[in-house]
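Board notes, transcribed. Complex of a protein with 7-methyl-guanosine-5'-triphosphate.
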Amino acid sequence: MAQNDSLAVPSGDKYVTVFNDPVNFNVKHPLHNSWTLWFDNPGKKSNANTWEQSLKELITFDTVEDFWGVYNNIMKTCDLSISSNYHLFKQGIKPMWEDTANKHGGKWSIQLPRNKTMNDIDGIWLNTMLACIGEAFEHENEVCGVVVSVRRAFFRIALWTRSSDNQNVAMSIGTTLKRETGIDGMFEFQPHHETKSSGKPWTV
Ligand code: MGP
């Protein structure tokens, strides 16, 4: 069999895969959005006025391969010190309430006991990021970003949304987040600026 016949790849230009040229293959697979990874560890003395100073923009990527390059070269969540946060947000959205994309939004979040979650948190955070960059959400445009927080007693996973007034949209996002993370627990939705004083929080 000739060498090309053994490779189940169309010989035209339609598909370019690693089988065409294993040595020089360098095609990257674009993501629908560009994403920026941020880190902060504000410590105990920070408050809402000083908090932004500790926020560090780490890197922006827009391909599947670059995502893995970043993921494989940063510290794992389970090794981060107490009070650290990773924030993965769409490029152009700062991971703060004050950003125009976030200011009318809210977050789905869950706190996971640290001692019971230590072995799982890296996989949970990875699945959370993959759900975002892989566009797993029906209302994709509503997703601003995701955060993992390391605290003394718990890890917190949160997904920030662009709006906070449409329960159907929020519930769809929360349900997908719960499924994609594989977390068996209750997520709660909170607007960043609570204006409603009555009613139970939305949960999934
Ligand atoms: P947090 O880390 O979201 O809450 O915010 P947590 O984990 O319940 O509190 P912690 O003390 O255990 O870390 C902690 C504090 O950081 C807030 O009370 C604010 O002072 C500040 N902060 C956090 N965020 C996300 C923002 C923000 O978006 N904007 C501003 N101005 N301050 C923030």
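Residues 83 and 151 are 5 Å apart (CA to CA). The helical segments are 64-71, 114-117, 121-133, 167-181.
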